[in-house]
UniProtKB/TrEMBL annotation:
Keywords: Ribonucleoprotein, Ribosomal protein. Transmembrane segments: none annotated. The keyword Ribonucleoprotein applies. GO terms for cellular component: cytoplasm; small ribosomal subunit. GO terms for biological process: translation. One of its GO terms (molecular function) is structural constituent of ribosome. The keyword Transmembrane does not apply. It holds the Pfam family Ribosomal_S16. Belongs to the bacterial ribosomal protein bS16 family. This is Small ribosomal subunit protein bS16.
């Protein structure tokens, strides 16, 4: 079953709001989905996402759409997946990967951590 990470549109006309979902690629845009990973509001540029779940699905082979790929990059999910590939290859251990990811979060002052939910607010 081909899996995609994509946006599911919500909100009224002229006020879009999206959920970031994992869905079968054959299902319609606003149809059935497997799991909700987060939310994206393009009007306020606010991204909320469970990065651990996103990394889990990326490692399982889910293909993000172009827009979701840029959101995953801004929130750091693609970087965390990259670090876990290094752990799997034996370049460093999991603790070092988590350490590098937390340093990335500290360096990137637009990303805020709330338990395992990361919040990204774009500068205006």
């Amino acid at each position: 079953m081909p899996i995609k990470i994509r946006l599911q549109r919500l909100g009224r006309k002229g006020m879009p709001f999206y959920h970031i979902v994992v869905a079968d690629s054959r299902s319609p845009r606003d149809g059935k989905y497997i799991e909700t990973l987060g939310a994206y509001n393009p009007l306020t540029k606010l991204i909320k996402m469970y990065v651990d779940s996103a990394v889990f699905w990326l490692e399982k082979g889910a293909q993000p759409t172009d827009t979701v790929r840029s959101l995953l990059s801004k929130i750091g999910a693609l970087y965390k997946k990259h670090l876990f590939i290094g752990v799997r290859k034996g370049a460093f251990d999991k603790k070092e990967a988590e350490n590098r990811f937390s340093k990335w979060i500290e360096k990137n002052n637009n990303v805020y951590v709330n338990k395992n939910l990361l919040v990204f607010i774009k500068d205006k």
